[in-house]
Each structure stands twice: as structure tokens, then as C-alpha cells.
């Protein structure tokens, strides 16, 4: 196999270990090209020099698990498939139930600090966990790790990241075209008209004002039955501008689609490693909370009652489970991890990659879009009061630092 091996720390040690490996293969009358990646890794671990490195690593690695590791072990105790479904349940259930505590007149713009915190978590997970895992693999506490340098493998991984990034660009662009320039905020922190034009924003504002004035008139009449209450809600919905109402429904469609990608992210992460899966779950959970609250506020402004808005959000959560099941199917039937443990047949375009290996780069690309293009414009928005904006900016940057710091601390442990 025309590949070179480099250990996690020193190139020279890898060359010596490689000499041991090829000596062992020659003694066994086996050519390197006849082995799979996992078999070559196993042969390397049997080299005397590598065994001594393994002993040194085990001696210097703390034996007790960190608190976060113990918590993750309780939350995710089973196989990658089961853990992916559990993670989807964690990120879909609690944020939706929190909507019961939200007032129907919540202002989505008030969530900017929470959005900044979620951005820090997403970018931290991408830069501290996903990208290192994609190109270098996960470190093991029991043995030294080797990285296989293959022609075109890194290119394919980079291509997967770009495909994930521009998939979200296409989704956002298509929705903006469908809504006449409104667009869905993939930052999961505000409304679907965050990047829309002024006419759309004014339409939402007028729709909300009409709903508030209508609600004030209804308060003057004391409801006597549940039927009267239902009639008042229907009357309230009729006052909403049709274009604003349509924006709410389109936002639900975009939300459902985006939740599918969240499910794909969770499944691909758990098949990569338990640690990557757990940290990705934390990052997705943090950005799901402002996402659900922001979309809830938009639906209320679009004419939904609080109960109907909550029900619609639960329906969109089905998209996350659908994405998770798709990801599990790709991993189970399309291969995952080191390709073909029992043979040396090449994978995608002559590399050792399988289709399952491409889900994690796709996830990283989507997270990069969510954490940058979809959110940074919102954080850059400023008002006329300079003192207020300076304080707001400092708080937002601190929130980003806290979110990224949590991901760094989990990775460090």
C-alpha cells in the first residue's frame, strides 16, 4: 500500500516502527498491500518499540475518569446507534418542553446573548473535536495512534466539509427565493426574517400589532365557554397578514429540514467515537434552545396560538429522528470507520474512506455555516446608542467565549 505512517508525536519513531512492521510482514510472507488499514494498525501495535510506547502512555494517563466522562457514560451507555437515538431525544425533548414557560409575546431579538453562547459551542465543537477527528482520528488512552497519509484522502474529507457548507447555503438561498427575500435563520436563535427586507419586517410588526390590539379587544369581553375562547383565537388569526402567516409555515419547513441535518450530525459523531458524539450532543443542545424559542416567537407572530405553536415545534422535532435514522442506515450499510476490516479493497475513489466516513465532514461543514454565515451578521448588527452597543458586544463576546470554553474543557478532560 503506497502510504506512509506517522505516529501522534514523532516521525522518527514511526519510521522505526515501520521497519519492525515490514520485518514482521516479511517473516510472515505477507505483503503490505494485502492488508486493510485496521490490520496494519494491529500489526504496528505488536512492534516492540510501539509496545514500549504504549506502556509509557498507559503509565502517564490518569486512571480515574473525569466527571464529564462519567456523566457521558451514564447518558450514552450503549451502541452508537442507540446512543444516537438517545442524543436525539435529549436535544429534541427538553427544548420543546421549555416553550411552555415562554410568554407568547417574547421578543426574538432578546435572545442574542443566548445565540452568541450557542455559536461558541458550535464553533468550539467543530474546531476542537470534529476537525481533529476528521483528519487525525481520536486519541486512545491505551495505545499510541498512527495516522495514515494517503493520496487524495484529505482532499475528499475537505470536499465533504465544503459540500456540507454549501448544502446549507443552497437551503438558505432557496428559502429566501421562496419567501421573496425572507430566509430562515439557521443560527437557531432568531426569526426567519432576521435577514429579510424592511417590508417583511414591517409586515411582521404590523401583524403582531394587529394581534395585540385584537387581543386587547377580546379581553374586554369575559369568555364564558371554551368554544368562545376558540372562536376568539380564530378571529385573532384572521387579522394576521397572509404573507406573515406564510412565513411561519415556510419557517416550519426549513426547521424540519434543518433538524434532519442535526440528526445526521449526531449519528455520524457517535459512529466516529463516543466522545465526539457526546460533545456534539452538548453543542447541538445549546443551540437548540434559542432556536426553538426564536421559532416559537415567529409562529406566534404569524398567528399561531401558543398551543398550536408548541405542537408545530414538536412536529418539526420528528425531522431530527428522521435524520438520525438516515445516518444510522448510512453507517451500518455504507460502512464506517476503517474500511473493510477483513480485506484491503479500496473505498471511495481509491482511498480507505467509506460513505459513512463522509458524514462527519458534512456535519463539520454545516456547523461552520451555522456558526459563521448564519449568525455573524446578527452579531454585527448595531444600533445608534454606542454605549449600549459596546456593553452588548462585550456580553456577546463573553458568551461566545463561555460556549467555546465549555467545549474546550470537555475536550481537555
Automatic annotation (TrEMBL):
Can you tell which superkingdom this protein's organism belongs to? Eukaryota
Keyword Transmembrane helix assigned: yes
Q: What is its main location?
A: membrane
How this chain sits in the membrane, per its record, is: Multi-pass membrane protein
What is any Pfam family matched here?
Answer: Zip
Record's GO cellular component, any one?
membrane
- Where exactly are the transmembrane stretches of this chain? 71-91, 111-135, 155-171, 311-330, 358-381, 393-412
Q: Where is the composition biased (Basic and acidic residues)?
A: 229-240
Identify the stretch(es) annotated as Disordered: 211-240
Name the chain's protein: Zinc/iron permease
Amino acid at each position: 500500500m503506497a502510504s506512509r505512517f506517522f505516529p501522534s508525536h514523532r516521525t522518527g519513531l514511526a519510521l522505526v516502527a515501520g521497519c519492525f512492521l515490514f520485518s514482521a510482514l516479511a517473516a510472515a510472507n505477507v505483503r503490505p498491500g494485502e492488508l486493510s488499514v485496521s490490520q496494519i494498525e494491529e500489526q504496528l501495535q505488536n512492534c516492540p518499540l510501539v509496545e514500549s510506547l504504549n506502556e509509557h502512555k498507559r503509565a502517564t494517563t490518569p486512571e480515574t475518569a473525569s466527571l464529564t466522562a462519567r456523566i457521558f457514560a451514564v447518558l450514552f451507555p450503549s451502541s452508537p446507534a442507540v446512543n444516537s437515538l438517545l442524543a436525539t431525544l435529549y436535544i429534541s425533548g427538553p427544548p420543546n418542553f421549555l416553550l411552555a414557560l415562554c410568554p407568547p409575546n417574547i421578543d426574538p431579538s432578546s435572545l442574542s446573548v443566548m445565540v452568541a453562547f450557542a455559536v461558541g459551542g458550535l464553533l468550539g465543537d467543530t474546531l476542537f473535536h470534529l476537525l481533529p477527528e476528521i483528519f487525525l482520528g481520536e486519541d486512545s488512552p491505551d495505545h499510541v495512534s498512527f495516522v495514515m497519509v494517503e493520496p487524495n484522502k484529505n482532499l475528499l474529507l475537505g470536499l465533504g466539509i465544503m459540500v456540507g457548507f454549501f448544502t446549507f447555503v443552497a437551503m438558505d438561498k432557496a428559502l429566501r427565493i421562496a419567501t421573496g427575500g425572507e430566509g430562515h435563520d439557521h443560527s437557531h436563535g432568531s426569526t426567519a426574517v432576521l435577514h429579510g427586507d424592511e417590508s417583511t419586517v414591517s409586515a411582521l410588526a404590523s401583524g403582531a400589532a394587529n394581534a395585540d390590539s385584537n387581543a386587547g379587544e377580546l379581553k374586554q369581553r369575559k369568555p364564558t365557554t371554551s368554544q368562545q375562547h376558540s372562536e376568539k383565537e380564530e378571529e385573532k388569526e384572521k387579522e394576521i397578514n397572509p404573507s406573515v402567516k406564510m412565513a411561519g409555515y415556510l419557517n416550519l419547513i426549513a426547521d424540519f429540514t434543518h433538524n434532519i441535518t442535526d440528526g445526521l450530525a449526531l449519528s455520524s459523531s457517535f459512529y466516529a467515537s463516543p466522545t465526539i458524539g457526546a460533545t456534539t450532543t452538548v453543542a447541538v443542545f445549546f443551540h437548540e434552545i434559542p432556536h426553538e424559542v426564536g421559532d416559537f416567537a415567529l409562529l406566534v407572530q404569524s398567528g399561531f396560538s401558543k398551543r398550536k405553536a408548541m405542537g408545530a415545534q414538536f412536529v418539526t422535532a420528528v425531522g431530527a429522528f428522521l435524520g438520525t435514522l438516515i445516518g444510522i442506515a448510512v453507517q451500518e450499510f455504507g460502512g464506517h470507520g476503517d474500511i473493510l476490516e477483513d480485506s484491503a479493497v479500496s473505498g471511495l475513489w481509491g482511498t480507505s474512506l467509506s460513505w459513512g466516513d463522509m458524514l462527519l465532514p458534512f456535519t463539520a461543514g454545516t456547523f461552520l455555516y451555522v456558526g459563521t454565515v448564519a449568525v455573524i451578521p446578527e452579531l454585527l448588527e448595531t444600533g445608534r446608542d454606542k454605549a449600549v452597543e459596546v456593553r452588548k458586544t462585550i456580553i456577546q463576546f463573553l458568551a461566545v467565549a463561555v460556549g467555546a470554553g465549555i467545549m474546550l474543557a470537555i475536550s481537555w478532560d
